[in-house]
Amino acid sequence: MRLTVIGTGYLGAVHAACMADIGHDVLGVDTDAGKVEELAAGRAPFHEPGLPEILTRNTRAGRLRFTTSLAEAADFADLHFVCVGTPQRPDSLAADLRHVEAVVDGLAPLLTRDSLVVGKSTVPVGTTRSLSRRIAAGLRPGVEARIAWNPEFLREGFAVQDTLRPDRLVVGATEPGTDQLLRQVYEPMLRAGVPYIGTDPATAELVKVAANSFLATKISFINAMAEICDATGADVATLADALGHDARIGRRFLSAGLGFGGGCLPKDIRAFLARAEELQVGEAVSFLRDVDRINRRQRRRTVDLARRLLGDTFAGKRVAVLGATFKPDSDDVRDSPALDVAAEIAATGADVHVHDPEGIDNARLALPGPSYHTDVMDACRDADLVLHLTEWRQYRAIDPVKLSEIVRVPTVLDARNALDREVWHAAGWHVRALGRPHPTPQPERPDGLRVTIPHASGPACAAPTP
Ligand code: UDX
């Protein structure tokens, strides 16, 4: 089938490449000529495992092309996927629909044949209905365009796998025939047994925000439990394991630590709150405010604990930060808890040294203050404290004996609960984490300090959300 993918950011680039990979003839469209050039040459403009390979394979095979021209897109196919971003508005919690609206407004008058426009971006419930009116107003006489919503659930770092083998396909449409067409598009996935849920547009839009709200709630729930663990000496990791054995709960998304960030979960729960308020049902989802608050509090707790581990002051201290991206296997630093903590500590005047396997360039742009390193040893040399803030696999492979030889003080704060604390402890490290007691009796510190876990207090670390 011939189709276009409008918007080649994270979602669009992966969707376009995967649609070509399952055999469709795909034209990707973006206003950014630089990005179009990169993609057309088979290069991914961001770090995503597996994407360069399928981009190269499909551009070479001639099944995947890119353009900046919406007119070319209108001419190329009758099926258009809209994958542009819906960021948080700068002045409120709501989603900014400017890009989606611009695509619909731009495309409608260019259509010369009956077409189907399928939105994939995360949007507030009710958007399909308003876009459908908008597109109808822009069409040439005699041309018809249907609009449907088909949300995408891909995770960064697993985007290719999530697109080719999704947990489910959800399509919200009103007109008959839309379902049939999309079943054809996704035929290889359906044949492989992926469940297909055909529904109305409002339900489809809601599935996405509800899923992200649920995941965010799960993370904040376990982080709230981590605070209770800190107050009682209980261990949040064991608690999560024990809870997770209950099949009704499940262990995934119960990893306590620095909390969630990135371009989706934080902005999606805020946009959901804003939309619910517009619909006069804000009270129904007011718990999401607490989910957001608990999440941001983990950043502050981490900074507070770091300060205490350094003897209640960052002044004159050298702090090594392992990880800048919001999660491993990504170079994305949008709303990154790790970078937020690094920023807060750097703002105290401490000497902050950051390492990240893939996110250094983006981190440097977002936060110019700290020193950045491509080598873990360089970042940790002479450190008074090592902060483990993003759980990249390679940090778990660090030899703590070797590392202890180059730091000034062997203290590590594992804010992702991902290091093997027994091994680090045995190598002479003082290991701390959120929601977990000491692995074994604390080794003597040169300065004789007793370190206590802080409770949430003091100024917020993350920028306050409007
Ligand atoms: C998320 C959704 O998972 C995905 O379905 C949706 O399409 C987009 O938003 P993504 O933002 O790529 O995907 O990241 P995800 O893997 O969900 O992690 C989000 C954040 O939660 C990360 O910062 C991660 O470190 C954090 N997290 C995740 C935890 O703190 N604890 C956990 O147990 C799981």
From TrEMBL:
**Region described as Disordered:** 434-466
UniProt catalytic activity: UDP-alpha-D-glucose + 2 NAD(+) + H2O = UDP-alpha-D-glucuronate + 2 NADH + 3 H(+)
InterPro entries documented for this protein: 6-PGluconate_DH-like_C_sf, NAD(P)-bd_dom_sf, UDP-Glc/GDP-Man, UDP-Glc/GDP-Man_DH_C, UDP-Glc/GDP-Man_DH_C_sf, UDP-Glc/GDP-Man_DH_dimer, UDP-Glc/GDP-Man_DH_N, UDPglc_DH_bac
* SMART domains for the chain: UDPG_MGDP_dh_C
Annotated NAD(+) binding sites: D30, K35, T86, T122, E156, K267, R334
The family database entries (Pfam families) matched by this protein are listed as: UDPG_MGDP_dh, UDPG_MGDP_dh_C, UDPG_MGDP_dh_N
In this entry, which stretches build a coiled coil?
none
- Residues annotated as binding substrate: F153, L154, R155, E156, K208, F253, L254, S255, A256, G257, G261, K327
Q: What is its EC number?
A: 1.1.1.22
Q: In which pathway does it act?
A: Nucleotide-sugar biosynthesis; UDP-alpha-D-glucuronate biosynthesis; UDP-alpha-D-glucuronate from UDP-alpha-D-glucose: step 1/1
Residues the record marks as active site: C264 (nucleophile)
Q: Which UniProt keywords apply?
A: NAD, Oxidoreductase
Name listed for the protein in its UniProt record = UDP-glucose 6-dehydrogenase
Which source organism? Streptomyces toyocaensis
